[in-house]
């Protein structure tokens, strides 16, 4: 297996899809994956159009994902797809993922995991039963300095964690963009496609995942305030959540899509009884560690940096001073997933650093987070217990 690229099939990612292109670019970045097949739209005509634009042979472009699974299974092992990337809106996550796994294909799925929590529980069981590889694209865990932050906390540099602040401010839905023909706004604000939450499902899950990933802590209860700021919407476009973690630490999560003028500067700050740290996407190459009785330490990405851990070094791509950006972070998820898949096919044991990508548990916890946040937001009770 190590002498050929892995073959990827894609579901979704047709005309008007932003995230489909991101997946294709990221998957191709390391030269280990080739896009070999796809069912790019619920419209067979649009799927065929996208396949042609991507220079795929017409015989490997399908009118539905059911057709793709059925016909790809019939191909010789060396020709058929090895895994599927699913890049559809939330309401079309569960069924294609379930069928892909049941047909023997590994899966990379765009977050959140499913349309609702019940689907997530079912899907988690299927992933466990099949034993196939599953990656959920929580992009921000792929940044080298995010991995370094996690490593420093796990190594005890910050001491006992006391406080976690995580925020994700966006401004793109500051007005009724969904009333235009803008596809990305239309489905995200539609409960039949997005689920019970918009903002908290779309970017709040990213912030929650980042908080647990970096801190190494698990959420035990929460208190949420959700808002609909733009008149006429039925789903949240703004919110804040108080957090309590399993070691007794507290936290605050903010996610909003009506922060006028804001872009995508997700940021996390963690404070322990020895030191604190902070990282933000707008300055992604830098991790700041703050000590109470010493100058700040500034960690920077770059090849051959002696003070960085193997966790960040395994995910570096550029020399010092060159940005490690969003696409590179996304590609790190694909690279680690691919390295693990190669190892499995070759009967080898993957490096522990390669196994560091979001999976089924992250997806299940993310959907539980959405459910509990909405429940808390509607309740008169102050705190809601977080449980799976």
TrEMBL record:
<dbReference type="InterPro" id="IPR055170">
    <property type="entry name" value="GFO_IDH_MocA-like_dom"/>
</dbReference>
<protein>
    <submittedName>
        <fullName>Predicted dehydrogenase</fullName>
    </submittedName>
</protein>
<dbReference type="Pfam" id="PF01408">
    <property type="entry name" value="GFO_IDH_MocA"/>
</dbReference>
<dbReference type="GO" id="GO:0000166">
    <property type="term" value="F:nucleotide binding"/>
</dbReference>
<feature type="domain" description="Gfo/Idh/MocA-like oxidoreductase N-terminal">
    <location>
        <begin position="7"/>
        <end position="135"/>
    </location>
</feature>
<dbReference type="InterPro" id="IPR036291">
    <property type="entry name" value="NAD(P)-bd_dom_sf"/>
</dbReference>
<dbReference type="InterPro" id="IPR051317">
    <property type="entry name" value="Gfo/Idh/MocA_oxidoreduct"/>
</dbReference>
<dbReference type="Pfam" id="PF22725">
    <property type="entry name" value="GFO_IDH_MocA_C3"/>
</dbReference>
<dbReference type="InterPro" id="IPR000683">
    <property type="entry name" value="Gfo/Idh/MocA-like_OxRdtase_N"/>
</dbReference>
<feature type="domain" description="GFO/IDH/MocA-like oxidoreductase">
    <location>
        <begin position="147"/>
        <end position="277"/>
    </location>
</feature>
């Amino acid at each position: 297996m190590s002498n050929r690229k892995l073959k990827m099939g894609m579901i979704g990612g047709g005309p008007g899809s932003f995230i489909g292109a991101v997946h294709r670019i990221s998957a191709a970045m390391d030269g280990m994956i080739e896009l070999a097949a796809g069912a790019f739209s619920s419209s067979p005509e649009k799927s065929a159009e996208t396949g042609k634009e991507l220079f795929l042979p017409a015989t490997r472009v399908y009118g539905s994902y059911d057709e793709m699974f059925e016909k790809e299974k019939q191909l010789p092992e060396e020709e058929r797809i090895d895994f599927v990337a699913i890049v559809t809106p939330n309401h079309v996550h569960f069924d294609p993922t379930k069928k892909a796994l049941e047909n023997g294909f590994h899966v990379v799925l765009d977050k959140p995991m499913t349309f609702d929590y019940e689907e997530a529980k079912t899907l988690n069981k299927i992933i466990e039963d099949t034993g196939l590889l599953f990656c959920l694209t929580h992009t921000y865990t792929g940044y080298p300095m995010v991995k370094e932050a996690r490593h420093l906390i796990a190594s005890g540099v910050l001491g006992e964690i006391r406080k976690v602040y995580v925020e994700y401010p966006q401004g793109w839905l500051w007005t009724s963009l969904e009333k235009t023909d803008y596809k990305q706004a239309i489905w995200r604000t539609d409960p039949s496609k997005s689920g019970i939450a918009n903002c908290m499902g779309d970017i709040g899950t990213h912030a929650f995942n980042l908080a647990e990933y970096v801190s190494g802590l698990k959420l035990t209860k929460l208190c949420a305030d959700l808002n609909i700021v733009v008149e006429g919407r039925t789903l949240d476009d703004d919110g804040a959540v108080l957090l309590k973690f399993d070691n007794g630490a507290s936290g605050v999560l903010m996610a909003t899509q009506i922060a006028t003028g804001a872009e995508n500067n997700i940021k996390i700050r963690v404070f322990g009884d020895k030191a604190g740290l902070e990282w933000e996407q707008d300055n992604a190459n830098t991790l700041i560690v703050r000590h109470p009785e010493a100058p700040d330490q500034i960690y920077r990405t770059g090849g051959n940096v002696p003070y960085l851990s193997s966790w960040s070094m395994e995910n570096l791509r550029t020399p010092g001073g060159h940005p490690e950006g969003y696409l590179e972070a996304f590609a790190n998820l694909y690279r680690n997933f691919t390295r693990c898949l190669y190892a499995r096919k070759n009967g080898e044991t993957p490096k522990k650093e390669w196994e560091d990508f979001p999976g089924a548990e992250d997806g299940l916890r993310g959907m539980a987070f959405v459910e509990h946040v909405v429940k808390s937001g509607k309740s008169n009770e102050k705190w809601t217990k977080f449980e799976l």
